[in-house]
UniProtKB/TrEMBL annotation:
Signal peptide: none
Keywords, ordered alphabetically: ATP-binding, Nucleotide-binding
Entry GO MF terms: ATP binding; ATP hydrolysis activity; carnosine synthase activity; metal ion binding
Protein name: ATP-grasp domain-containing protein
Organismal lineage: Eukaryota, Metazoa, Spiralia, Lophotrochozoa, Mollusca
Short name of any one Pfam family annotated for the protein: ATP-grasp_4
InterPro entries given in the database record: ATP-grasp, CARNS1
Length: 603
């Protein structure tokens, strides 16, 4: 009714988003006489939804919009792929490329179904009517070009970092190998300090050999490394590390060279877990606009012998958690129910784990002392925060499934968080407060917390970028690269991150040797999983480059396999189907149970 003699023209705006991914942003219509040309100059912009209702086609809107989105984004993707094959002269100039297009459509009924027919594509005036529409609807301001602005900021940050010289202390394990090609791609010149076999030295701008294994001598190591750097005459822009054991050492080097960094005080407190908790417990003062910090922490006790255990028993109730004071994994973590179990665990651990060589990479370079603290009930979460000069730049929350019984190793993960919006705000605030209250200044930090019935409680702070799959997931979901954030803050440049919206829901499961070794030792299955990753059907993040390098004698996760979907329910169904197909779920390792908490507005 009311549309006789009228027709409409539909404009879809598509921008080059982060990672060169096309994103359809606006769907704007103009209504006019069907016997005359209809364009942006002789119509007033209105939404696709309103227009479809006007024509009595509201039931067709969802399918039409899906078709428009897929077709329009595919068109820009083809343009990008074509331009990538051209040289600078063929493109028109250095850096010339198509970043935004507008596609005009009309609707045609075919076999009883309305289908869009493209009639024009251009890139010179494609945002005019979209911006007119946003002017009339201020709450939508920036919608049509949002991804393009993000891409422009991304390019600017890449340019700002190009040619920077950054000292990286410690190469880390195989799971950190992505750092070197990623830095090289951004033209960041890495000076790596470590003591590696020749065949393990990565492709970096400069490699300085130095053995810092004994971290009890970090002050001496820092002085020696600074002398080496000055001797080589390197003009340094920053210094950082991605390896847990090297955090205090890198902070000392920053301090001695007067470089921007995470902050020596914060690095030292974060590395010693009991100091982290006890420092926060002492922060009882009122802070305007924030809860009191002590509410996030629990009093801890440093344990070196049985006498320390007996003292701890006076203030820590059983069951309690015991773990390595300087640990960087779940190795050594145990729930103890009485003093007998506590003494037995202390004795066993101090007998088996005496030095770094006993279990490389878990923090034994600082000794094998332990801590005891209250066991916290609730769901476990990771909060990866980016700080610059003590200000919160960004935070990304993920949910963890229940830990594997008896080992406290991670079983499953989900991002974005399924927590209610107010609980996400609560846990982000808690993570930020805990970081700045112990003295962390600038960088990307991984904070582990439990959401208890009374709110968030701190497990520990890792004063470096989150490891394993976290950087990869955050980059895939939000288009934010934590690796670049670390390099930027180390060089005194604030990362520009504009509250990115998640592109999809991701959910993954850990694979462990005791259950999954036979599956991954089957070369056909292993190759199929890697191929599915290459094709984009799954995300496969491994601790080791090759399956032959996995230590099948430990119960540490060997890899994470994840899927992405439109929402939590779809991601869970997709992951469970994959786990069934590849026999990843067993009676002993019940993936369905691990994913049980992952649902919208989980409490």
């Amino acid at each position: 009714a009311g549309t006789e003699g009228l027709s409409f023209r539909l404009r879809v705006n598509v921008c080059r988003g982060l990672g060169d991914n096309p994103e359809a942003t606006s769907y704007i219509c103009g209504v006019g006489q069907k016997n005359s040309p209809i364009n942006g100059d002789n119509t007033k912009p209105q939404s696709l939804e309103t227009t479809m209702r006007q024509w009595g086609l509201e039931n067709e809107t969802e399918n039409l919009k899906k078709t428009l989105k897929e077709g329009s984004e595919t068109l820009l993707r083809r343009i990008i792929e074509h331009e990538n094959r051209l040289d600078d002269e063929e493109k028109g100039n250095v850096g010339a490329q198509t970043d935004v297009i507008g596609i005009d459509y009309i609707l045609s009924k075919r076999n009883g179904v309305y289908a869009p027919i493209g009639i024009e594509v251009n890139s010179h005036d494609c945002t005019i009517n979209c911006q007119l529409y946003e002017f009339m609807n201020p709450d939508l301001a920036g919608l049509s070009v949002g991804p393009l602005i993000q891409t422009m900021c991304e390019r600017s940050q890449r340019y700002a970092m190009s040619g920077k010289v950054v000292v990286v202390v410690g190469a880390g394990g195989s799971s950190k190998k992505f750092i070197w090609p990623a830095a090289k791609k951004e033209n960041i010149r890495v000076v790596l300090v470590d003591c590696l076999p020749n065949h393990e030295i990565p492709d970096v701008a400069r490699y300085l050999e130095y053995d810092f294994t004994d971290h009890t001598q970090d002050e001496t190591h820092a002085k020696n490394i600074v002398q080496m750097l000055l001797k080589h005459g390197a003009e340094l822009d920053g210094c950082c590390t991605f390896w847990e054991d090297c955090v205090p050492l890198a902070a000392r080097i920053c301090d001695m060279l007067d470089l921007d960094g995470i902050g020596l005080k914060g690095a030292m407190i974060a590395k010693k877990k009991s100091s982290t908790q006890n420092t926060l417990c002492d922060r009882t003062a009122d802070i305007p606009h924030f809860p009191r910090t002590y509410l996030y922490a629990e009093r801890c006790h440093h344990i070196e012998n049985e006498c320390d255990l007996e003292n701890a028993e006076k203030s820590v109730e059983f069951p309690a958690i015991m773990k390595l004071e300087y640990g960087s994994s779940a190795v050594g973590v145990k729930l103890v129910h009485d003093m007998g179990e506590a003494k037995e665990h202390l004795s066993s651990l101090q007998e088996k784990l005496t030095c770094e060589e006993d279990h490389p990479g878990i923090g034994l370079g600082y000794g094998n002392s332990m801590l005891m603290m209250k066991y916290l009930e609730g769901t476990e979460h990771d909060i990866d925060v980016v700080l610059y000069n003590r200000k919160l730049v960004a935070a990304f929350v993920s949910d963890n499934g229940p830990t594997k019984k008896g080992f406290f190793t991670e079983t499953a993960a989900c991002m974005p968080s399924c927590l209610p919006k107010d609980k996400v705000g609560q846990i982000v605030t808690a993570a930020y407060q805990c970081c700045v209250e112990i003295g962390l200044v600038s960088g990307a930090f991984n904070v582990e917390m439990k959401m208890t019935p009374a709110g968030p409680k701190l497990i520990e702070i890792n004063a470096r970028m989150g490891g394993f799959y976290l950087r990869d997931w955050i980059k895939e979901i939000y288009g934010v690269d934590l690796l670049r954030c670390v390099f930027m803050t180390a060089c005194g440049i604030k990362p520009l991150i504009n509250k990115p919206k998640p592109r999809y829901q991701m959910m993954g499961v850990m694979c462990v040797p005791s259950v999954h070794a036979p599956i991954f030792k089957n070369s056909q299955t292993y190759d199929l999983i890697k191929n599915l990753h290459t094709m984009g059907h799954i995300r496969y993040n491994a601790i080791e480059d090759e399956i032959e390098d996995v230590d099948f004698e430990t119960e540490e996760p060997m890899c994470n396999i994840a899927v992405h979907a439109g929402n939590v329910a779809q991601a869970k169904e997709k992951l469970l189907n994959f786990c069934t197909l590849f026999h990843l779920s067993t009676e002993e390792y019940d993936v369905n149970r691990f994913l049980g908490n992952f649902k919208e507005n989980m409490i």
